[in-house]
Amino acid sequence: MEKCLLLGNGGREAVLAEYISKGYELYTICPYENPTIIQYVKVSNGKYLIADPFNKKIVEDFIKQNKIEACVISSDNLLQEGLIDVAKSLGLKTFGPTSKGSKIEWSKTYALDIVEKLAPEMIIKNFNITNINELKLIIDKYQDDNFVVKPEGLTGGKGVKVGGIHFKGKLEGFEYAKTCLESSGNVIIQDKIEGREFTVMALTDGENIVITPTTFDYPYRFDKDKGPGTGGMGCLSFENGLLPFLDQNDIDQCAKLIKDTIKYVNKDSIEFRGVIYGGFFKTKNGIKFIEFNARFGDPEALNVLNLLETPFTDVMKNVFSKTLNSNNCKFKTTYTFTVYVVTKEYAVTNREKPLIFIINKEQIEKQGVKIYFANAKKIGENTYSSISNSRLFGLTTSAQTLEEAKEKLYNAIKGNIDEQLDYRTDIGNIYEH
Hints:
Strand content: 25-35%
Largest sheet: 6 strands, antiparallel
Shape: globular
Number of helices: 14
Radius of gyration: 21 Å
Distance between the termini: 49 Å
């Protein structure tokens, strides 16, 4: 059996570990023992190393020592730092863009420049600001807080702030934009527009793309979309691969932009293959572009990989051989449903000490719900410790109706997770705002 290296240690990598282990010996380098990833390393007779996955020398040595043949990376920071480039340089088959290819995510101005060339009608009016005087002039032009502040670089889904939701009034918006400007040397101010936000994700071999079922994400921390933005508190998909407010024409428009973007980025050499997804708004004036991501979304990966009818390892091989198409990458027609479980402090305040918590994993799984650990490690029977202030674990299930999936997952939570933990109780409601 071939050997595959997976780098990254969140919930997204946990679900990747499950599906990679079905066709490869799984190898990983991780800073702590993610229980799900380690479980699938062991199941596949692979090997893991507790070390820094950003250390290119450690990664290079691990690849050589274990004669690893393939590499999958779906972590924004690891992609930006060029860990796929290291794997490519050693002759590995790779799933994920090079650092140059992933620039469409880690530089918002680069992505906006590409879309301006390829689909100017999708652009929301924006200003790329590089000094404080320019920032004052631009914000002065807005009425009250009717604008959005976007940092230039990676923020894990937590950096974009919307006027009237994440900040109140011009002054508060200005102060946040100022910190972004001081941090990276530029900041984007964008018009605030009305519409329904959605993402379109595609698998690509660098030439061909296959659009995955569309997912609906719940980025806000609390019920009814209150509180700060997060990495995602939950996610769902519908049996027809669409969302109630979208039609196939909407998806086709987004797919065209994605395919044209891949062609643009890869015009000189294959810098991008793996997964690309775009954030979009559906407005009364058409589809508008928000941003690109150069990897699987999290929690979206938990839904989409569980929707694959074709084994993911076959999809990987079709990506490697540039033979990917909708006939060899098929999806089930079912509903999927994901809820992330977090500490009560998550996205609100920093927790000083790790949280020790108990969950009845066996009982949850007996009810047809999968657990994907993210920022947690096992310290005893059914006992775990948080690693950071990030999300602890995701729960995912599927069913023939949304209500059935929702009921199954929330019933599995009852009595089986520690009362110290928190989650949104309204995933499955699709809001109008």
